[in-house]
Design brief:
The protein contains 12 helices and 16 strands. By secondary structure, it is of the alpha+beta class. The chain has 2 domains: 7-103, OB fold (Dihydrolipoamide Acetyltransferase, E2P) (Beta Barrel), CATH 2.40.50; 120-260 and 324-430, BirA Bifunctional Protein, domain 2 (2-Layer Sandwich).
């Protein structure tokens, strides 16, 4: 069907065209049949005056030929001279398009019906594609090389999150689904690729809304976290400029386009509590934690639990009050095993999150590039872990760092959370074409 016209390209009348798509609505009158037909680009009305033509049903996929014209109301239409039913549909599709069973869809088994019937979902899929492509373009313009790394690994990713373990009969050992993209990116930086990025799905065995999510991660050799934050600011500006008001919430675009505000981890907590909890008496801090629903573990050192408590408060309380994107910097080093320690011996690390309305949109890290420092951080991480049987270090990363690694900054953008803000939604199924769950998005 090489001569098929795309609906959005039709603008003038009295032109012979051939179109193809799905019938989404049908209205029969005495001498006419009016059909709404859609393709990926939009919708147009078919006018069938010749009753000898085979009439389609709602849901059918058809090929129509005819001359473009305008109705009395000015609507661009096609007066059909030929119509071919390419593929007959089913009653389920017709019911979905008529909204008979729209609210009863099973999110997994009937997702196709949901997409067929829901124009907002179709728009989201297009916006998601544009969103990712804009970020890709901006990174490429800044000299970044896109890479494609494996989903499976012999080593679990570096972190405390619970990895998915899969069995392989061929290699006779456990394999791990990736929970992050950064390991391979860092290996490439060691190998001499100074600016690299990847977009891909990651997996965490933590909650229904975190089983599968989309990350964009990048690493930049010889750069620091401030330079990376400036890059992210420019990328967000490009997103807000290039995504149209009809595709995303215009009020969110205006807010996100503002300059990113920066506050340190402990300063944010000082403002929330009205005191520096690092200097407060232990019993007072424990009481504050209890009110916030956090229980200190007695088996873990106090400073570590204090940092974890502070992080939970920032995630669940403080960040919800941010009026624009706010980068919370200088995270405690004890909860930042992959981040370089600040040189002022403050116990802080070059790591932070960009928050907005309670969602963590991105993370920026001044990466550890010293082999011995990374080993020490992993060892301390394992000692503090509640699950002593697991090892959270990544051997591939450690081997790569041992070869010599330049200083570098890394960033991770959570595509789902960012889209949720732009689309003003808070449900996983609203920002993913094929979600495994309809749970609310995680913080």
């Amino acid at each position: 069907m090489k001569n098929r016209s795309i609906i959005s390209s039709l603008a003038i009348e009295s032109v012979n065209v051939t179109v193809a798509g799905r019938i989404v609505a049908l209205r029969k009158m005495k001498n006419y049949c009016f059909c709404d037909m859609t393709d990926m680009s939009g919708k147009i009305q078919l006018v069938i005056a010749d009753m000898e033509l085979a009439l389609p049903n709602v849901g059918d996929i058809v090929k129509a030929e005819g001359k473009t014209s305008r109705t009395k109301t000015g609507q661009l239409s096609i007066e059909c001279s030929h119509l071919l039913i390419i593929s007959q549909s089913t009653i389920e599709v017709a019911n979905a398009l008529k909204n008979v069973s729209y609210n009863k869809f099973d999110i997994n088994r009937q997702r196709t019906l949901n997409i067929i019937a829901n124009e907002d979902l179709k728009k989201m899929i297009k916006v998601r594609s544009s969103f990712i492509e804009i970020i890709r373009q901006q990174l490429r313009l800044n000299g970044f090389l896109e890479i494609d790394a494996p989903v499976l690994s012999y080593s679990r990713f570096a972190g405390t999150a619970d990895a998915f373990v899969v069995k392989s009969r061929k290699v006779e050992r456990d394999l791990y689904l990736r929970g992050t993209l950064e390991i391979y990116l860092k290996e490439l930086v060691v190998a001499g690729f100074e600016k690299v990025f990847q977009v891909g799905d990651c997996f965490r065995n933590e909650s229904p809304s975190l089983m599968e999510f989309t990350l964009l991660e990048a690493n930049w050799a010889y750069a620091d976290s401030k330079e990376m934050l400036n890059l992210i600011q420019n990328i967000i500006k490009s997103l807000c400029e290039q995504l149209s008001d009809s595709d995303v919430d215009p009020s969110m675009k205006r807010i996100l386009a503002k300059k990113i505000f920066t506050v340190t981890f402990w300063d944010a907590l000082n403002k929330y509590f009205g005191l520096d909890i690092r200097k407060a008496e232990k019993n007072k801090v424990l009481n504050l934690a209890k009110k916030e629903g956090y229980i200190f573990r007695k088996s873990v050192d106090y400073d570590y639990e204090l940092a974890k408590f502070g992080y939970e408060v920032i995630k669940r309380k403080v960040s919800k009050e941010f009026k624009s994107i706010t980068f919370v910097s200088n995270f405690p080093s004890c909860i930042s095993p992959l981040a370089k320690k600040m040189q002022d011996y403050s116990g802080e690390a070059d790591r932070g999150y960009g928050f907005f309305k309670g969602k963590r949109l991105f993370e920026i890290v001044g990466e550890v590039n010293d082999f011995q420092e990374q080993i020490t951080n992993f060892q301390m991480q394992e000692e503090r872990s509640h699950n002593k049987a697991q090892s959270f270090k990544n051997d591939n990363l450690l081997n790569s760092l041992s070869y010599g690694c330049p200083p570098m900054a890394g960033v991770g953008i959570n595509v789902n959370r960012f889209l949720a803000v732009l689309l003003k939604t808070n449900t996983t199924s609203d920002v993913m074409p094929f979600p495994l769950t309809s749970s609310a998005l995680p913080l």
